[in-house]
Amino acid sequence: MPIHTSLTQRLGLSCPIVQAPMAGGADTADLVAAVGEAGGIGFVGAAYLTPDQIAERARAIRSRTSCPFGINLFAPLPATAMPEAEEVAAAVARIARYHADLGLPAPGTPSLGADGFAAQMAAALDSGASAFSFTFGIPSADALAAIKARGMLLMGTATSVEEAVALERAGMDAVIAQGAEAGGHRGSFATGPEEVDFAAGLVGTMALVPQVVDAVNLPVVASGGIMDGRGIAAALALGAAGVQMGTAFLTCAEAGIPEVHKRAILDARETQTRVTRAFSGRPARGIVNRVMDDIPDDDALPFPLQNALTRPMRTAAAQQGRAEFLSLWAGQGVRLARRQTAAELMARLVGETDTVVRRLSGDA
């Protein structure tokens, strides 16, 4: 029983499954291509990639498939003010003990790098992607117009109805409704002069999706805690045009995360994830480990300073298989994670969804 939605029709997909962008290397060319070949659409989380790396990743995907794929970037954030020297020194000292455990030199003081968004976006526009999504907010009207001029499906991430309405007003083609269960960074952003209230943005997928569906006249993609066909069918029943899944793909053979991260997901329970600022400075959900236990959110530097400060630690931890120092991003559906190839996962998801839909419609 093929499922056709506005999302599948616009992108030429055979199933309404989006492999979430996972900046940091998880979404390899092999993974993105395999999802596309199986009838869904894979995304490249390009926020940490240089323009040359974006172009290379796109070429690698195109060498493996002619199916649609997507690119994701972080929307430009307001300028980060450099914290007081004492605050920075304290943050560096907290990370220094981990460097010692990993055999690394003492960490240096992080600095604010140059804004590379314009160059990243230019590379993404030339990538041949069929879809372009954003996290953390809304880029400029000129940026959105450039994307639409290329015929790409334009998607924004919302964690509240207010954010979804703002995305629709900005001209997005679809909204990704990110529930609190989702792994990785929260997509919350300010829709007015007030600061972002991240705690208020922790609305569960089951509650968020139908409210967003009712509030906007755009296709809504459900994200957060969806790991199998039951979750896909539930999202469709709530009015979603598709689902975005991240954690389910992290334990696939093609995923580019370290083996120790995959093992942590496979061994974790649903109660063992938490939203933290310890690794990047922005709230993100991951499996609780030593760093998350040690560093309260108030002690983390703002993004992207904390991200820059912890990057050498995370890189060394991945090489050494030290889970206690890694950002073990994962959602609350971890018990449903399985070891398999992306093709096997996609086939299972399609089969499970079909079984659920048939059962609920009385055909099974």
From TrEMBL:
GO terms for biological process: response to toxic substance. Keywords: Detoxification, Flavoprotein, FMN, Monooxygenase, Nucleotide-binding, Oxidoreductase. Its cofactor is FMN. One of its GO terms (molecular function) is nitronate monooxygenase activity. The keyword Ligase does not apply. It holds the Pfam family NMO. Coiled coil: none annotated. It catalyses: 3 propionate 3-nitronate + 3 O2 + H2O = 3 3-oxopropanoate + 2 nitrate + nitrite + H2O2 + 3 H(+). Belongs to the nitronate monooxygenase family. NMO class I subfamily. This is Nitronate monooxygenase. It comes from Roseomonas genomospecies 6.
